[in-house]
Amino acid sequence: MSIKTIFGFPITRAALSTLSLIIMIVLGIWITIELWIRISFIVILAIINFCLIYFSIKRPPGFSIENFLRTMVNSIWGGKANHFRANVMLYNPKTKKSEIKYAINMDGHKDRYFQLDVNKGCTGHAFQHKKPYWVDLTKVTHQDYLVDPTKVWEKMKSILSVPIFDPENPQKKPLGTLNVDADLKLKLSKLNKEKVYLIVNTYSDWIGKLLKR
Questions:
Q1: How many CA atoms lie within 13 Å of 160's alpha carbon, on the beta-carbon side?
Q2: How far apart are CA 81 and CA 62, in angstroms?
Q3: Number of helices and strands (H, E) in the chain?
Q4: What pLDDT digit, counting tens, does each position of 108-162 carry?
Q5: pTM of whole model > 0.70?
Q6: Residue 174, phi-psi category: left (phi > 0), alpha (psi -120 to 50), beta (remainder)
Q7: Which pLDDT value is given to residue 212?
Q8: Euclidean distance between CA atoms 120 and 41, whole angstroms
């Protein structure tokens, strides 16, 4: 672990700020400062340390939703994980579109930063109806779901979309969708199996909580 990484930890910075106070006391500088200034300094230092440690616990160093997505895919599909892609599309109220913000196994793909109207595609169906939805792309086309096939992964054969809700108000419009697609037919990807989309749905709940922190 590098020195830069260590000093990037909020808890390390909290320890250093406390150490600065100890050094002042040891050197005798502390005694020469007026009482009200000393009290104010301690209060401010306590607040800073609390915030640094609190946010260190809330969102650990190195945290990323991409790592979370990778864990999901690996835990469900194991050795076949390289056949799957996963992404989080968030609703943008300004553009009225869903936009891919986080993704794994999509680097170099033409749809890595894909945007789509919220009434289109598998993701749009899940978003509008607020429930998981899967599509077998060996039986239907992207055009059937109002998606331009030239703008998406040409190897995609199956896809599952699950809505991501605001944990504080799940009745509101979803925050976006958690999507998993594969170059495997449904028989192999199992994206249409209830036990699979229930697990993905659980991950979408966790992602909703993480996004709101």
A1: 25
A2: 22
A3: 8, 6
A4: 999 999 999 999 999 999 999 999 999 999 999 999 999 999 999 999 999 999 9
A5: yes
A6: beta
A7: 82
A8: 56
- Tell me the per-residue pLDDT of 22-63, one tens digit each, with 9 for 90 and over: 555 555 554 566 776 666 666 666 666 566 555 554 555 456
Distance, CA of 16 to CA of 136 (rounded, Å): 56
Element at 180 (helix H, strand E) = strand 176-182
Residue tagged 């946010």 (tokens): 55
Short-list 142, 169, 178, CA closest to 68 = 178
> Which burial class, exposed, middle or buried, applies to 205 when counting CB atoms under 10 A from its CB (0-12, 13-18, 19+)?
middle
Q: How far is CA 97 from CA 58, 71, 163, 172, in A?
A: 29, 27, 14, 16
